Amino acid sequence: MGIAASIVIVIILLALSAFFACSETALTAASSAKMHSLEKEGDRRARLVNRIRQDKERMIGSLLLGNTLVNILASALATSVMIRVFGEARGVVYATVLITIVVLIFAEVLPKTIAFHNADRAAMLLARPVRAFLVVLAPFTTAITWIVRMIIKAFHADPGSVEIGADIVALRGAIDLHRGPEEGVDVQRAMLRSILDLAEVDVSEIMTHRNKMEMIDAGDPLPKIVQHVLQSPYTRIPLWKDDPENIVGIIHAKSLFQEMQAHGGQIGGIDITTMVTEPWFVPNTTSLADQLQAFRERREHFALVVDEYGTLMGMVTLEDILEEIVGEIDDELDETVAGVRRQPNGAWLVDGTVTIRDLKREFEWDLPDQNYSTLAGLILYESQRVPEAGQSFTFFGFRFDVVRRQRNQITQVRVMPPRKHDSVEGEK
């Protein structure tokens, strides 16, 4: 073979090497979410990319096999040419240096850089030729994959094992890396994180405590009950009998109004017990994801929360769960309770009943909430005492001043968040 022909073949082999390197990077770095979305829209190239990536071992093995073959062949031919031109001693040195530089720049770094920055487009463009190449090398790739698996098993490793929760961790990382207009992105990040948290948060952490529940005594006169329903901002109100914890039913304002209409607007002939619905009790350990699914299946919007002993703890609504995702939902009948007020010195006056989750979502404060749900709970748990008004604590870089206490309940706290350059290490 002549020197000119050998050089042409070396150039072709280097081009193939660049193709394999570019394909490996593009198919590995392409966005799975975007390829899935494009496939659902009918894009055939995206569907082919997804099919190729279904067996990543085969894909990577084939591309590496092709890349190794063409690089070795290119090195051998280049060495042969250099030996004929410069002699054996110098030819080997020149060939080694030249092929190393050319392969590194033009067959590795350059194509991989281009593919990395245009991964989605490059993956769809190269999918067809890669697919053809995978079919041709299928027998060799299968044999190589089998040998690799045997070697891995010999060292008692499981090549197919995946760390539990790895996908969720990757998804959380992707949410943190999400970029865009600052104001909109903050809201989007908070919503996406909240969706992932639904399976980890119990209804007890977001419920309305029984002390704050609006309820009606079944023993009250009918006019008083009707007046209560009319003045209430809520459409569903628990009805209790003899004891506030003995919930016997739920009054729906619409049912009451329909009954009044059936009696010509008069309340004299109304039997309140005929329009109440049976209360639905759920355990306080039910996750928000499970409760949301239960709401959908039962077509309910309201449930009462009980502990392991059957004691009433509070109530949870569909709106409460939705607010965990999208933030507070206020309508014209909602009673707006601030709960958090900014002070001129940068501190915040916070009601003790405000939840840690709301503070984290609103201000992105780095506070744990595994062992408590409210700000008062945090102070009680971390201080291991019931503090007096005027006492101060420092936890997780935040300063907490107990402003007001009623009996054993912390009702108001002044919170001074850490400055950005301060350490957030917790101390007591």
Would you mind describing this structure in some detail?
There is one protein chain. This protein has 428 residues and is an alpha+beta fold. Helices cover 53% and strands 14% of the residues. Strands 8-9-12-11-10 form a five-stranded antiparallel beta sheet, with helices on one face. The protein has a four-stranded mixed beta sheet with strand order 1-7-6-5. Strand 2 (216-217), helix 10 (222-231) and strand 3 form a beta-alpha-beta unit. Helix 1 runs parallel beside helix 5, helix 4 crosses helix 7 (138-154) and helix 5 (88-117) packs across helix 6 (119-136). Mean pLDDT is 84; it is low at 162-166, 332-337 and 421-428.
List the helices and strands and how they pair.
Elements: H1 3-29, H2 32-40, H3 44-54, H4 56-86, H5 88-117, H6 119-136, H7 138-154, H8 166-176, H9 182-197, E1 208-209, E2 216-217, H10 222-231, E3 236-241, E4 243-252, H11 253-262, E5 281-283, H12 288-298, E6 302-306, E7 312-317, H13 318-326, E8 340-342, E9 348-351, H14 356-363, H15 375-383, E10 392-395, E11 398-406, E12 409-416
Parallel strand pairs: 2-3, 5-6
Antiparallel strand pairs: 1-7, 3-4, 6-7, 8-9, 9-12, 10-11, 11-12
Helix pairs in contact: 1-4, 1-5, 1-6, 2-3, 3-6, 4-5, 4-7, 5-6, 8-9
Features:
alpha+beta; four-stranded mixed beta sheet; 14% strand
Spatial shape: elongated
Class by helix and strand content?
Answer: alpha+beta
What fraction of residues sit in β-strands? 5-15%
Number of helices: 15
The main sheet orders its strands as 8-9-12-11-10
Order of helices and strands: HHHHHHHHHEEHEEHEHEEHEEHHEEE
Fraction in helix: 40-55%
Count of extended strands: 12
Low-confidence stretches: 162-166, 332-337, 421-428
